[in-house]
């Protein structure tokens, strides 16, 4: 019974000893190199277990192997014994396990790890992190796209672990994060040494439509196109080139975004400081057209000083024409200074003011009464526009077309392009208006015919036509019409048929209309006026005399006279 107990105790102690001394499969163990032969290293991992590892698993980045008998190494124990009775061990797996432990700590602590890019794969590169292989996406190689990654291959450099999964064996790293962090530190250091108003040297790094980026020694600043020169700069490439060293002034620094605004023109004297003295209002200067818009043209008076010639100040005569049809870019022109606003850095210029007002010139050379000749440029409902010298027009109103025809009828006799003669009747230089008259070229037959005739006059006319509504009569060549109601004081005698063509009839003038060139005539009005005059001279019916007696007396008196 004692012997049996002793054997069980011995077996338990033996198993305990085996569990302590025998390495566990799937773990990293220490071993000693006992031989190097046939491209393999024979390693004693203890407890009389030996295994073989290919020498290439001990190779460094350059491919060389530095291993000697007696060296102590760590290996990964896959199995305690294979078919040949040897332990199955691996140096690569040992390094991988060691690397994963180390990398997991670095990932948890967000510290950098060292590695070397050794291969190219789809979408990026492979990186050796000292036993573990990681994936480096192409977008994480550098802060800018890399066209040639050759110089980076095989070079030891730091990386940041972005993601790792030990179970799947995935590690994603970034080189860009390291560079951005270093760059941010460098930017912060450079910016801390800069201040607004400081003058520094920089190198033009990039040029865009709106400006240029200047490297100030690790940090870029934006030099906007409007801050390059006092004059107008259409594109930065006009005055800058990539790689050029320029002197700039720090205009503004944003400490939060690390954005720096730079200026070049601020290092030069501002030409606007002397604008009012150099360009007094009313003075005329020569300038160069730099830009043309729908509303006018910009003219450079000197480098950095531009003024606007508004479209309304470009020509005396061309009112609705695009500025590009009056001037062209780079053309030299004479302009007059009309207004200066130094606060807003604006100069208003005039182009037409450097030339004489064509209406004033016309008024001097063509006083009222002057006869002119011109082409009909336009026909409107109120008259003709006739082209005159210096690209100005004169207007012939409907009422000035003819003495004998109404304007609406007379204008039908004219066509666009006809050359006509007319007389200048008025020149208004302020309103830029010239009035012409075609009818003034001939005599006014109406005025001549009715000379001395006024309202209330009694004249003798000749009957020229008999109509139902009245009679047509002639006076010195001027036709008039007497309506039926004006043919007699007595309704019974208001009959047109009692007259014959050629009869001479005394009538009273009731109206003289020079505009319509018509005389208002009435026999009835003459008879009423004669009766009134007779009553006043020879009595009235109130005194007992009859109207017949009064008219008879007036008739006898006129026969004796």
From TrEMBL:
UniProt family annotation: Belongs to the bacterial ribosomal protein bS1 family.
Matches recorded under NCBIfam families: PRK06299.1-2, PRK06299.1-5, rpsA
Keywords, sorted A to Z: Repeat, Ribonucleoprotein, Ribosomal protein, RNA-binding
PANTHER family referenced in this protein's UniProt entry, alphabetically: 30S RIBOSOMAL PROTEIN S1, SMALL RIBOSOMAL SUBUNIT PROTEIN BS1C
Function, in words: Binds mRNA; thus facilitating recognition of the initiation point. It is needed to translate mRNA with a short Shine-Dalgarno (SD) purine-rich sequence.
The protein's name in its UniProt record: 30S ribosomal protein S1
InterPro entries: NA-bd_OB-fold, Ribos_protein_bS1-like, Ribosomal_bS1, Ribosomal_protein_S1-like, S1_domain
Keyword Nucleotidyltransferase in record: no
GO molecular function: mRNA binding; structural constituent of ribosome
A Pfam family matched in the record: S1
GO BP field: translation
Domain of life of the organism encoding this protein: Bacteria
GO CC terms, sorted: cytosolic small ribosomal subunit
Span of domain S1 motif: 26-92, 110-176, 197-265, 282-352, 369-439, 456-524
